Nuclear transport factor 2 family protein
Amino acid sequence: MTTTKTARELAEAYFTAWEAGDFETMRGLLAEDVDFVGALGTAHGTEEALAGLRGLGKVLEKIDVKVRVAEGDEVITWFDLCTGIAPPAPTANWMQVADGRIARIRVTFDPRGLLAGFARQH
């Protein structure tokens, strides 16, 4: 028997997998045509979304979730994005689920610290 995860469960699994660098698990959570828009770029489709998450994953140290609010097929996660190159960035992530997968993601945070950190790396 297959059970469909709730939007909250999908969000929890997404952040756990991202923090662990488990991109194969993430692939199974995302809709094939996932649409991502964030402070550092956009991605359309699973492969583009995973490429972006892998890129930020190279400097990711911790995702410190403060609160997660779910209503129906939508969930918002408020967290500190902790990296090795910048101070923690307070971040809001909104996800919309369709057919048991994450279909739409919108992320907002102040990217200046991360951009400066990336610039120092080069």
Remarks:
- The radius of gyration is 14 Å.
- DSSP finds four helices and six strands in the chain.
- The domain at 7-121 is CATH 3.10.450.50 (Nuclear Transport Factor 2; Chain: A,).
- Helices lie at 7-20, 23-29, 46-57, 112-121.
